[in-house]
Structure formats: structure tokens, C-alpha cells
Amino acid sequence: VTYALVACVSVLIIACPCALGLATPMSVMVGIGRGARDGVLVRDAHVLETLQSVDVLVCDKTGTLTEGRGSLSGIETLGSIAETDLLRFAASVERVSEHPLAEAIVQASVARGLDLETPLDFDYISGMGLQATVEGRVIVIGNEPLMASRDIVIGNANNLADQHRRSGATVVFVGVDGQLAGLLCISDAIKESTPQALEAFRQSEILVVMATGDNKSTAQAIGRDLGITDIRAELSPQDKHELVKSLQEKGHVVAVAGDGINDAPALAQADVGIAMGTGTDIAMETASVTLVRGDLRGIVKARNLSVATMQNIRQNLFFAFFYNAVGVPIAAGVLYPMLGFLLSPMLAAGAMSLSSVSVIGNALRLRGAKI
Length: 371
Hints:
By secondary structure, the chain is of the alpha/beta class. 51% of the residues lie in helices and 19% in strands. The model has no long low-confidence stretch (mean pLDDT 87).
């Protein structure tokens, strides 16, 4: 009895907790490494469990669905300020901005050989635009709500803006000293990989929602090209946060993909926040997953990795339970009455490692998983 008891304790006390303790962390560790090889950086381990259950994906437009490296496609002057001065004022303010469209304005001014000034009294208005002083003049750049908040009358300029928006361009209003001075039109191409990724989401029955701070006409033009039917436009960062929260309250498991400062609240609220590696630092800091290449197909890979990892964890738990369900009775002497066989405590101590070896070996199979 003592002989069997010692053998039983060797298996039960040591082998079982060791194998079960390794089952999940080993799979998660190998899974995170496997994702990193394909440019999917997972910060929080629980994400690998949650991703497989995601049924709604909320996507930002600029820099997520599109390249985020727009080009200035048009300038419309509406006052006495010359086109060159309008661009120079706007670029001087935008040079300190991290927004993807700001780079397009700055690059256009550099291409024309314009000398940019250092803006003073710079103010970033979240989800709306920028304000600063350049050469003693107050420059306001942004959307219609920002112009309205600064008592800048847009008037018929909206009709001119809509003409550009219907072709998918983003229109930025520029105000100078309280008067509307002109429009800057920025075209941003859709990422080559986006249609393929969206098709994969549809096959997985994941609802894709476009959530953007851009104008409704521009968002609809991009959504039409991509086949996205659920489009939420002219949203502030808080609006995006509330959208995610409302979807969660309806029972959905929500992932958010974004790249900018405006997306940070929604990324934090989401069950899974996914940042583009080509975006801002604050987005990557807030998100639990970062796609190094900024490619939406990385979400497909991340979801497939989640499924593979959870399957691997279940297999590990089965191996651990099965091994110990067989090993403990044998160590306790269940075969002795029939076969006269008793497991030596030394063999039991050695056999305990086989349970852990099986778990570790199975977890390592994830390195070759096709995601």
C-alpha cells in the first residue's frame, strides 16, 4: 500500500498540475510567436481567445481601408488669398500634425518649393481639425463642424466640396482670419489588399462597419467601391467609442481596426483593438494587436491564429487529463490484483515528465500552423 501510495502521489501531485499548468501558457506563447512571424503582434494573451468569437469589425477609413498616403488632387480658392498662399498657410499648420492627410498637404507644398513657417498657438481640435497662427494670421483647417464652431460661413462652398467628395476625395476647409479662404481636396487610394480582406470577412460572416470622421459623401463613395453597406460618417472620437459600446450592448463581440489618434477611444473600448503598424504611436499603444504591415489581411491571419491556438489548448488539456486519468490508477495499483503489476515510485517520478513533454510537443506544432 505504501509503495502504491508513493507512486500515486508522484503522478498526482507532480505530473497532473505540471501538465495542466503548461497546457494554456505553452500554446499561447507559441501562438504569439507564430503570429509575430507573419507581422501580427499580439500584446494581450486573452486576445487569442476572443478573436475567434468576433462577429463585428469596425474599420476606420483613412489609413485603414485606404493607403493613408493621399495626394493633393485639387485646390479651390474662394477669397482674395492666392492659391500658393492658401497652400503655404495650410501646410505650415499641418506640418506638426500626425494625421495621414496632413502629409499630403505638406508634400504638395514641398513639391512647389514653398517655404513653410513655424505655426504659433497650435491647437488640435479632436475629430475636427487644427488651428494655429501663421505670419500673424489665424488659420483654421478642418471639417464643417470646426468651421461652424469658429463662426466661419461655408455657404455655397459645400456644393463645390460635394463635387469632389462624390469621387471619393476628402475635402478640407481652410479659414483665414475668420473667413473661408478655400478648399483642399485630397485623394486617398484604397489599399490593394483591402477588397481581398473584406471578402474573407464576409465568408466568415463578420459584419464590417466603416466608421469615419470624414464627410458622408466621401465615405459612401469609398464604401460603394468596397461593397460596405453599413457606413457611419462624420463621427467624432467619442461617437466612435459610443458606436462600439452600443454594438457590445447588443451582444456583439467587436473588433476595431484603426490607425489614428481619433481611433484610440474606440480601440480601447473594443473587445479586440487592432492598430495599423503604419499609423500613430497612440493607436498602437492603445490596441491589443498591431498589424506591422498595416494590411487588413493581417486580421484574417490573427483570427485563424486564434482558432488554431484554442484548438491546441483543448488538445493539450485532453492530453494532460487523459494521461493522468490513466497514470494515477496504475500508480495506485489498480493492475495489481489482475496482473500483479505495481508501478515503481522511481518509474512514476520519471513518467511524470511524459505528460509535460506531450503538452509541450503539441504546443510546438503551432509553429507550423497555416494562418
